Request: fold
Amino acid sequence: MQTIYTEGPLSASAQVNDDQEMIEELLRELVGMNPNAIIELSNDDWMKDPSVHLPPAVLLGLHPLQYKQELTTPLRIAAAYGFTHCLQYLLEHGAQPNLIVGGKSALHEACENSSSECTEFLLKGGADPDLRTEEGLSAMHLCKTPKSLHSCAKVLLEHGAAADLPSEEDEETALHVASRSALLHHAKLYLQSGADVNHTSVHGETPLGVACASSQDPEELLQICCLLLSYGADVNLADKQHRTPLHKAAHNIQHSLVTLLLEHKAEVNSFDHNGRLPLSCVLHSAAVRAEQEPHRVVQILLNHGSITLWPQALPKVLSMCAAEPKTVEVLFNSYTHIPVTCKWEKTIQAETLQIHQQFYQSLFALGCRPRCLQHLCRAAIRQHFGKDCHRLIPQLLIPKGLQLYLLLEPVGIFH
Reply:
């Protein structure tokens, strides 16, 4: 196979300026009668001339000062930049659409860049819709943007691509990719095309699980999870670390998602490999996700029947969540009695104590007196209703404020 090395115009001027005519001219000049020639794009000019002026990004260490090369083909270049005329010319002159050079084929480039016409041309020219990259990803796995829905994903399926083809390394499907990226319409397309909603990766991850662990927009993730559940996603299917979707949603402090999962019978008291409940996951994230109101998720879980933590673990909880007094209040009010000791104050930083002085004074005062009768009544009612607190308490014919009290709404002080 002929290899052509280029140092100048193709990798620098032409690609930077996206000059289609120049690239087409250079490709034809470089490949001659061999449309499948391998082109090596290099960035080693600085090695040839040490006195060359390096870009600021290189001097700052953002790019390693080492020789780099990228092997590609004329067809890959044309597909990457969406140059359909050039791509059509190459296909007409014998370019092989399934040739993998530099880890990818031209079809992978087209789908990665959401190029509709290039994708269509390549598939009609004989490109294998299920061909994998050297990393084991199909073209469907590379459809990661909203634009790629019509330009690539639908076109691939129309040309026989498998909706459920797993990646070679992780065995994730395109539905996993769509779920993680909160691509609702991609996910719907794959499910309508027969994708397995409960397909598990080598790590035991399901599409629902990766969606719940994602950091995408909460509203978009909620829509994705609603879709997956409507297609029969198993809400309690855990990964290899025994983490359920509820563990992951709780860790990410996703209020609406946690509620949705519980409404679909998620097990609120399941333990992961490290012995953590979903409630524990919230507490471990509370300090770093304070703006997401972790106390709301704690409320939701407790009102759906989450068991409380071992009382001897409360000092550790206090050390983790002290800067979030609402979270501390909601959790501690789920106990009939709080075993406060003089050592608790030492677990909290002095600055935090100063900021929330009134709150923690009310907490430490419980070490020398019992809880009030109102709290004890709340504890008795909650124990009686159990996992149905969230459903039954709002039906009680009592003032709204009292309903909120029974549902552990924080008030900023202990009584």
Q: What stands out?
A: The longest strand covers residues 38-42. The two ends are 81 Å apart (CA to CA). The beta strands are 3-6, 38-42, 69-72.
